[in-house]
Amino acid sequence: MTEILIDYAPYLASIIAGVVAYLSFRESKRKTQHDELRDLYDEVKADNDRLRKENDKLKKELDNNATKR
User: Fold this and answer.
1) CA 33, CA 28: separation in Å to the nearest integer?
2) CA distance to 2, 28, 32, 49, per residue, from 39 (Å)
3) Rg for the chain (alpha carbons), in Å?
4) How many of the other CB atoms lie within 10 Å of CB of 61?
5) What digits encode the pLDDT tens for the residues 1-51?
């Protein structure tokens, strides 16, 4: 039994290393996609905030012009 394990140890180590590398790659790919989505969310949020401020400013200008008439 010990001889069999010793004979197949390099093959088992290669298989285990390959599985670990694949799982690491998959997790890295998932995390990268998550980070890209988070960046996109932050960008959209910043645009929304900017548009809200601009909208408020335009509403105030419209109200000021309406009260002057």
Assistant:
1) 9
2) 53, 16, 11, 15
3) 30
4) 10
5) 788 888 999 999 999 999 999 999 999 988 888 899 999 999 999 999 999
Report in angstroms the alpha-carbon separations of 53 from 35, 39, 41, 50. Answer: 27, 21, 18, 5
DSSP 69: -
Backbone φ and ψ of 47, nearest 5°: -65, -40
Task: Name the token pair of 33.
Answer: 């996609």
Name residue, tokens 């010793």: 6
Alpha-carbon span 37 to 10, nearest angstrom: 41
Q: Which pair of tokens denotes residue 28?
A: 């890295």
User: 1: which DSSP letter?
Assistant: -
In this prediction the pTM is 0.55
Instruction: List, in sequence order, the alpha helices (H) in the chain.
Output: 2-68
